[in-house]
Amino acid sequence: MAAVILPPELMRSREAERLTDEARRLLTFLVSLLPDLNPNEPRTCVRYKEAHDKLQLRQKGTTYGESLKKQGLAALADWTAATGKPAITGMIVDGTSLMPAKGYYKPFGRSVDDFEWWRDQLRRSKEFDWAPYLPFSIEGTPTPIATDIEEPAAQRVETRVYRVLRDTELALRVKKAHNYECQICGQTIVLKDGTRYAEAHHIRPLGRPHDGPDAQENILCLCPNHHVELDYGVRAIAREELRVVEGHNVGTKYLKYHNDHIAANGS
Ligand SMILES: [Zn+2]
């Protein structure tokens, strides 16, 4: 893969070479759509609103484009430009023109009518191996939603989700209590060195806007698949389906919170 050569005035700072969490989430989302992308068919790109909705972002700005820019889009563009990756942010297009916004070309020092370059970047994005830069995979088929970059972002329930990869002490205790077996399916992952692997999930997520507590009653021990399903709200949880062990009680109110606020608003 040839590096993008930038004129000196457009050289990115070292900071831009760091992929932020928000940018990584956006990248993961875009990469999940690459198999369906046809660089010669802009309808196979993703709309600003669609990306905003699918990522369950908070509204930060008067338009979806602006809001996305503040929540990973600008950082991802800067990172691809600074590190010479294909300009994958061109997969996000205006719902009416089916083209990227003018700002797309800027970090790469391209003029706003360089459509050949854009299509070439989409082709390169499809061929490029993004796996080393992705934290996890996301599933699901996107539903195209016709919209426009200038369309105001509607008020919506904030259900921004993150997988908390760093466990709290309590989370570790819960995983040990379950011997690293998923509370939904019973599966565990045995690593090469014989240790067992599972993930801890805070049912009512920590941090804004959910402000769930780091309490044992709010934690589940899950396999990665079920963890992602709950994070993305694609399934509800019934108390009866949960495997239980002595010393770890799951709070009914947290299950209800998940079912009412996270699964209900999930895609
Ligand atoms: Zn599972």
UniProtKB/TrEMBL annotation:
Keywords: Endonuclease, Hydrolase, Nuclease. Residues 171-228 form the HNH nuclease domain. InterPro entries: HNH_nuc (IPR003615). Pfam families: HNH_2 (PF13391). Coiled coil: none annotated. CDD domains: HNHc (cd00085). GO terms for molecular function: endonuclease activity. This is HNH endonuclease.
